[in-house]
Design brief:
The chain is an alpha/beta fold. The chain has 17 helices and 20 strands. The protein has an eight-stranded mixed β-sheet, covered by helices on one side. A six-stranded mixed β-sheet has the order 5-4-3-2-1-14. Strands 19-18-17-20 form a four-stranded parallel β-sheet, with helices on both faces.
Length: 582
């Protein structure tokens, strides 16, 4: 057996910041060297950031990635880090003639091994995911190589993300080709109810491959996606050896005892058991094992509970959207209700209360407790606040145009949206909208009113979960940031006298169960009724959800936390005559 110390760089790259990501690679490699690592592995598409979407179809972007890879290899050697092998994801291109149906330029979701100032070997993701938030057949062509490099006597194989999730392909070849360690760079986003599927997957693939497996995942927010880290290492029997924390960057160092490799350098072709052939490329870096040393105690970070996971995902999503898009501060309307209270709290936890601005905009229908609850939150959290009563502004509009019913109610929301956007223009704040998923689903929001803004922190959070998150946050150490009355009082938009959400919607615990099945489960009417939902309510809610599609298409992006969010996941036509049989 031979010893190997691997460093998994659970890092947060920025899409498009190739130079900045390269700087990060050098810095984290230096840190890994300082920890005595023999190998450092970065996540999928690290140099370009992930997902880069249609940027990968630009030849200039692809060329910048390829150039940066070569320059980074040279730079590592120039800075005395060339002896430490680095596995890193980047964007490459395949040498394929253009053809109809092939992504422009034949881009590759690639991975490379850097050592002693050069790119030693490279390969690309073989299985291209085309479900959920992924549509990689649009962007990439398939890779067909499995690199195996001998490092200090150990044969190390490299596969990329989805190659681990699908049967066949490079991972299926590892067992017959022989390797002591399989490293897998990933860009795997967070979602609720994933349980521990990653650990189960890694354990199964390690047993199939007959070798230890190191899974490194990126961390951070990228538009709607949140990557949660949770990198891990399992041994050849699938037993967990070490695990990194969730939702934070970490240089995750683990010592392993691995079998010495026996294969000879060169290339061989293997049946990939998915109708394709994989070329195995063996490379020799160093044949002799390292001198025996005292291993570090492996770290297994404690996993968060379900509500803690969701909350941390929302905080990270807001923090990175603000930071990566160059905003210095955020602004939102604070009504005293639970939704805006939770959004303000998330924002304060994400970027600090000193960078959060809230505006209280009472109307003639606002209750006294709405104002006092909002003011109490401001006192507890120390965010910046200002009061802008809107009654006179609304009255000025009403002098010029005659509005009734819903149109008159929505005018109030649109005045508030206009004020927030004006303050955003004046001071450079990012406007945070405060609508939740239950409201978005049923159209219970005002277009160009409470839907106006730049980022929507809780757009993928059902109302019943909003309350749970508020209670969870208040239960954490320190003074509860959200006034209890904001949590316990009956929700109301306060756009007419004595208005309650239940005037238009069923109780949220009932509504949310139905929305999960219809929106996230894609059940039709008959399936919903068979699942136990009230037939009349099914008819009403389906109609509301379907009619609100045009509103949702114009809603700001927000962090995806559920298996199917409004945005990247659930994509329905606005113009359609299909209706469920009602």
């Amino acid at each position: 057996m031979a010893q190997l110390r691997i460093a998994l760089a659970q890092t947060n790259p920025v899409v498009g910041d190739i130079a900045g990501n390269a700087d990060m690679l050098v810095e984290w490699t230096r840190r890994a060297a300082g920890r005595g690592a023999h190998l450092v592995v970065f996540p999928e598409m690290f140099l370009t950031g992930y997902p880069a979407e249609d940027l990968v179809l630009r030849s200039s972007f692809v060329e910048a990635s390829i150039t940066a890879l070569s320059k980074t290899a040279t730079r590592l050697a120039d800075e005395g880090l060339g002896d430490l092998p680095v596995v890193v994801g980047y964007l490459d291109r395949a040498d394929l003639a253009p053809r109809v149906g092939q992504p422009k330029g034949a881009p590759l979701d690639a991975v490379a091994l850097l050592h002693e100032g050069r790119v030693v070997t490279k390969s690309a993701k073989h299985h291209l995911p085309n479900y959920g938030v992924f549509d990689e057949y649009r962007y990439f062509v398939r890779g067909d190589r499995l690199p195996i490099f001998r490092l200090h006597g150990v044969d190390v194989a490299v596969a990329v993300c989805e190659d681990l999730w699908q049967d066949g392909g490079p991972v299926s070849v590892v067992a017959e080709a022989g390797a002591g360690l399989l490293v897998v760079p990933n860009g795997s986003p967070y979602e609720t109810n994933k349980d521990d599927v990653r650990l189960e997957l890694c354990a199964r693939r390690a047993r199939e491959a007959g070798c230890a497996l190191a899974y490194v995942n990126m961390v951070g927010g990228q538009d709607e996606l949140v990557f949660d880290g949770d990198s891990l290492v399992v041994d050849a029997s699938g037993e967990l050896v070490a695990r990194a924390p969730q939702f934070e960057e970490d240089l995750f160092v683990t010592d392993l005892e691995l079998p010495e490799g026996t294969g000879e350098p060169g290339e061989s072709r293997h049946d990939a058991h998915d109708g394709t052939v994989i070329t195995v490329e063996r490379v020799l870096l160093s044949a002799a094992p390292v001198e025996p040393y005292e291993p570090e105690t492996p770290v297994v970070a404690e996993r968060l509970d379900d509500l803690a996971e969701i909350y941390q995902a929302l905080v990270l999503g807001v923090r990175d959207y603000v930071r990566k898009n160059g905003f210095r501060s955020v602004i939102l309307g604070l009504s005293g209700g639970i939704d805006s209270a939770l959004v303000a709290t998330i924002a304060a936890d994400a970027i600090g209360p000193e960078r959060v601005h809230v505006v209280l905009m009472p109307s003639r229908y606002s209750s006294d407790h709405s104002i006092t609850d909002a003011e109490e939150l401001v006192r507890r959290q120390g965010v910046h606040s200002q009061m802008v009563p809107i009654a006179d502004i609304v009255a000025a509009f009403e002098k010029e145009i005659e509005l009734h019913g819903l149109a008159a109610e929505n005018l109030q929301a649109r005045v508030r949206g206009m004020l927030l956007m004006s303050l955003s223009n004046e001071h450079g704040h990012l406007v945070l909208t405060t609508g939740n998923k239950s409201e978005l689903a049923t159209g219970y929001s005002t277009l160009y009113g409470d839907s106006a803004g730049g980022f929507a922190p809780i757009k993928d959070v059902l109302k019943s979960v909003v309350w749970k998150l508020a209670e969870w946050r208040n239960a954490q150490p320190g003074r509860p940031p959200i006034p209890e009355n904001s949590i316990t009082k009956e929700p109301s938009a306060e756009l007419r006298p004595d208005q309650r959400d239940t005037d238009s919607l069923p109780p949220y615990d009932v509504l949310d169960r139905l929305l999960r099945d219809y929106v996230e489960g894609d059940m039709g009417r008959d399936e919903l009724v068979a699942a136990g939902h009230d037939p009349e309510l099914v008819t009403k809610i389906i109609r509301l959800v379907d009619q609100a599609e045009y509103k949702r298409r114009q809603y700001p992006p927000g962090p995806k936390i559920t298996p199917k969010n409004f945005g990247r996941d659930r994509r329905l036509p606005i113009t359609t005559r299909w209706r469920e049989r009602l």
